[in-house]
């Protein structure tokens, strides 16, 4: 009986050793894969807005320009209601926004 128990214990230990080797190989593959992916994929970079006076002024100006653009579009849609006129006002607005921004916010003069 003791030879049988010794044989079964040896089988269990061999199975446990094989399972440990398989687990170690799996963990090693995972570590290699994580290292490879870490080299390929850049780490996320935290992006912060500029906090200076000029940056705040530009953000405020962009908000004013965007609000004015939306107001013009809404007024055109409410006053005329025609899709053709609304599209024409949209195209004209897109062409004139840079001109208005340059004339209104240019600091060189």
Q: Choose one word for the global shape.
A: elongated
Poorly predicted regions = none
Percent in strands: under 5%
Number of helices: 3
Distance between the termini: 105 Å
Number of β-strand runs:
0
Q: How would you characterize the largest beta sheet?
A: none
What is the H/E order?
A: HHH
Mean pLDDT over the full residue set: 88
Rounded radius of gyration (Å): 35 Å
What percentage of residues falls in helices of 4 or more residues? Answer: over 70%
Structural class: mainly alpha
Transmembrane segments: 63-80, 86-105
Protein name: Integral membrane protein
Keywords: Coiled coil, Membrane, Transmembrane, Transmembrane helix
Coiled coil: 3-34
Helix and strand layout, with pairings?
Blueprint lengths: L1 H39 L12 H27 L3 H23 L4
Helix pairs in contact: 2-3
How would you portray this structure in words?
The protein is mostly helical. It is built from 3 helices and no strands. The protein has helices at 2-40, 53-79, 83-105. The longest helix has 39 residues, at 2-40. The termini are far apart. 0% of the residues are buried.
Structure characteristics:
mainly alpha, 109 residues
In short:
This protein has 109 residues and is mostly helical.
């Amino acid at each position: 009986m003791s030879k049988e128990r010794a044989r079964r214990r040896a089988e269990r230990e061999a199975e446990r050793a094989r399972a440990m080797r398989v687990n170690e190989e799996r963990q090693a593959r995972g570590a290699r894969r994580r290292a490879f992916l870490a080299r390929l994929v850049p780490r996320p970079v935290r992006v912060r807005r500029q906090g200076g006076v000029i940056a705040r002024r530009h953000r405020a100006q962009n908000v004013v320009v965007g609000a004015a653009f939306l107001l013009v579009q809404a007024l055109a849609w409410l006053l005329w209601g025609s899709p053709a006129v609304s599209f024409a006002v949209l195209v004209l607005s897109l062409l004139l926004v840079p001109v208005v921004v340059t004339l209104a916010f240019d600091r060189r003069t």
